[in-house]
């Protein structure tokens, strides 16, 4: 016996084996180019920014999402000779917000320092290995 129940915003449907024995009578609807849930890429057909695009990596919905949206929108719609040159204040606000959350938005300098230390260690290990091989 199948049944449904509501838990908060979720609707839970329990189906039995018998429920699945009959073929589905659902009809597919033709693709709607204006469907807001359809994956459209970064820019929607009407020219707006698709804030749900996975290519943004969740930046639009994080703790600095509003600052990101402001800076990205400014850049996208910028008509300046050097695109985005009129968006410095928005990008500065976004950067200041991101600095408040170093665990979510690691600074590139930290990553570069770690990478260069790793590279140096690898280089030293390779040199030591060559010396050992040459002396045997």
From TrEMBL:
A cellular component term, taken from the record's GO annotations: mitochondrial intermembrane space
GO MF assignments: protein-disulfide reductase activity
Membrane-traversing stretches: none
Skewed-composition ranges (Basic and acidic residues): 127-136
Ranges of residues in domain CHCH: 64-100
UniProt KW keywords: Disulfide bond, Mitochondrion, Oxidoreductase, Protein transport, Redox-active center, Translocation, Transport
PROSITE patterns listed in its UniProt record: CHCH (PS51808)
Compositionally biased tracts (Acidic residues): 29-38
Start and end residues of each stretch annotated as Disordered: 18-39, 102-136
Biological process terms in GO annotation: mitochondrial respiratory chain complex assembly; protein import into mitochondrial intermembrane space
Name of the protein: MIA40 protein
Organism from which the protein derives: Grallaria varia (variegated antpitta)
Lineage summary: Eukaryota, Metazoa, Chordata, Craniata, Vertebrata
């Amino acid at each position: 016996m199948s049944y449904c129940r509501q838990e908060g915003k979720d609707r839970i449907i329990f189906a039995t084996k018998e429920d699945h024995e009959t073929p589905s009578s659902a009809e597919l609807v033709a693709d709607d180019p204006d469907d807001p849930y359809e994956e459209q890429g970064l820019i929607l057909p009407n020219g707006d920014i698709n804030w749900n695009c996975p290519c943004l990596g969740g930046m639009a919905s994080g703790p600095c999402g509003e600052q990101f949206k402001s800076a990205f929108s400014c850049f996208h719609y910028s008509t300046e000779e050097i695109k985005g040159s009129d968006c410095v204040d928005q990008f500065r606000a976004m950067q200041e917000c991101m600095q408040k959350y170093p665990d979510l938005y690691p600074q590139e300098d930290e990553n570069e320092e770690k990478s260069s230390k790793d590279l140096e260690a690898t280089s030293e290990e390779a040199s030591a290995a060559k010396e050992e091989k040459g002396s045997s």
